[in-house]
Amino acid sequence: MDKLLLWMAVFTSLLSEAFAQTDLNWKVFVFPRESETDYVKLIPRLEKPLQNFTLCFRAYSDLSRSQSLFSYSVKGRDNELLIYKEKVGQYSLYIGHSKVTVHGIEEHPSPIHFCTSWESSSGIAEFWVNGKPWVKKGLQRGYTVKSPPSIVLGQEQDAYGGGFDKAQSFVGEIADLYMWDSVLTPDDILSVDSGSPPNPNILDWRDLNYETNGYVAIKPRVWNN
Ligand SMILES: *[C@@H]1O[C@H](CO)[C@@H](O)[C@H](O)[C@H]1NC(C)=O
């Protein structure tokens, strides 16, 4: 009986501290140190597999090594959808374990606004960095991105919800993360960039369902880009 009460107390405190559904407008997640234990799990509104998507976020980091920016894995398959920064001016998008890499010029260290979209029917992936289109690439034409995902910020998943590696962790600040089940138009991307995201229906920074783990803090966003 004591054990049951203890578990109930643990469960209740987990619910009240770790889970939240929050408007994070003008807030950031701070990942303040390199680790393999600190991360944020995002709980999406997503029942169906994805034929099209757009994902946008802001990030500010002074790391120059490679790092995971957005890790979406499904059972039995990691790298189902992954945004991985290889180095300054070089980003990779993985879909269903395949990858494309784009190159461009960016200041470092400097906050970025990053958007990427993918359309199954053409396989075309678009990239927007600070509102500028980088070169389009193509991968996994005809594929469907599986669900339900485990979505993690701060770490790269080599397994569903785990398999983290310190050398791939993110250190810095992440904000304004939004995800749609459609490909946004260039005008929409500019609206997101300027702070007016049109109806984000999978992940919405202003109504975010998340769970923090380890050393992660929520602070005001004091930078813009
Ligand atoms: C995905 O986009 C294509 C057009 O690019 C559209 O024909 C298709 O219906 C979309 N799929 C879904 C599930 O929205």
Automatic annotation (TrEMBL):
InterPro entries: ConA-like_dom_sf, Pentaxin_CS, Pentraxin_domain, PTX_dom. It is found in: Secreted. SMART domains: PTX. GO terms for molecular function: complement component C1q complex binding; metal ion binding. The keyword Glycoprotein applies. Disulfide bonds join C56-C115. Binds 2 calcium ions per subunit. GO terms for cellular component: extracellular space. Residues 25-224 form the Pentraxin (PTX) domain. It comes from the Eukaryota. The keyword Signal applies. Residues 1-20 form the signal peptide. GO terms for biological process: innate immune response. Transmembrane segments: none annotated. Belongs to the pentraxin family. Homopentamer. Pentaxin (or pentraxin) have a discoid arrangement of 5 non-covalently bound subunits. This is Pentraxin family member. It comes from Niviventer cremoriventer. The lineage of its organism: Eukaryota, Metazoa, Chordata, Craniata, Vertebrata.
